[in-house]
Amino acid sequence: MDEDDRGLVYDIRTLVNRRNVLGLFGGVAVASLLAACSSPGSSTAAGTAAATSTPTATAGTGAATSTATATPEPDLTEVPDETAGPYPGDGSNGVNVLDDSGIVRSDIRSSFGSSTTTAAGVPLTIRLTVRDASTGGALAGAAVYLWHCNRDGEYSLYGSGLTNENYLRGVQEVGADGTVSFTSIYPAAYSGRWPHIHFEVYKDVATAVASGPIVKTSQIALPQETCEAVYATSGYEQSVRNLASTSLAKDNVFGNDSGIHQIASMSGSVAAGYTAALTIGV
Questions:
Q1: What are 238-254's pLDDT values in tens digits?
Q2: Cα–Cα–Cα angle for 263, 264, 268, nearest 5°?
Q3: 3-state per-residue secondary structure call for the chain
Q4: Where are the domains of the chain?
Q5: What are residue 226's phi and psi, to 5 degrees?
């Protein structure tokens, strides 16, 4: 499904926009880093980076005992650019949810506006740390637009019976420590794709809600062990078959490098909910 792209003209225009925005963005990141170094508690902000853990969950139990902890990122690699897929909801393929009042939020489980439907599924907190790939500095004040499919493998705004729903989509401002967090549910594995989460990075919230230039478009890969634990629970039955029919190496997005720079670190359990953490270099 996500192998569809936005087209050559869009890709060229987006690359040009990224080059322009990144030129300006670098200065903002350096200024933010200097400010952090001169303020109280700057050692905490400077030391914040990717969460790393090794999940110990097993299929059917979901008993993961590891925790996601921050570690330094001295050699941060820029996260690969990836397709936004056919269901971005950012105005590039039909509907635009970014200019809707209510899109700036951290809890994305429910729709807002004319519907208040809540997406069912195993709880998932998605925590991204956004940094300048060249300096390692936190990109405080940037904005992240994040979206993913529901437990049935369908996307709000586009799926059958879901055109009036906008759940599992939201925009958040990156904090002073470079982090942004979303409360959501674990997405399904649908046919032809490895389980994943989409995101776009913008210069700031104002640019995001105006559907302005995108700084980075990419995807987060979810670890196999955690997927197996979640998909063994009720409501994810079709994901068991879909997960078994693909792999990171075969995936048309992550396959080039097996998602080495995009695999989230996981902590938690099926019963308590999971946290997916990833540091992304922009």
A1: 999 999 999 999 999 99
A2: 145
A3: CCCCCCCHHHHHHHHHHHHHHHHHHHHHHHHHHHHHHHCCCHHHHHHCCCEECCCCCCCCCCECCCCCEECCCCCCCECCCCCCCCCCCECCCCCECCCCCCCECCECCECCCCCCCECCCCEEEEEEEEECCCCCCECCCCEEEEECCCCCCCCCCCCCCCCCCCCCEEEEECCCCCEEEEEEECCCCCCCCCCEEEEEEECCHHHHHCCCCEEEEEEEECCHHHHHHHHCCCCCHHHHHHHHCCCCCCCCCCCCCCCCCCECEEEEECCCEEEEEEEEEC
A4: 8-281
A5: -70, -40
Q: How far apart are CA 223 and CA 115, in angstroms?
A: 32
Predicted TM-score of the model (pTM): 0.74
Model pLDDT for residues 43-78, shown as the tens digit of each residue: 333 333 333 333 333 333 333 333 443 344 457 999
Best CA proximity match to 106, nearest among 172, 167, 186: 172
Query: Position of tokens 């030129």?
Result: 23
In CATH, the number for domain 8-281 is 2.60.130.10
The tokens of 127 are what?
A: 């925590």
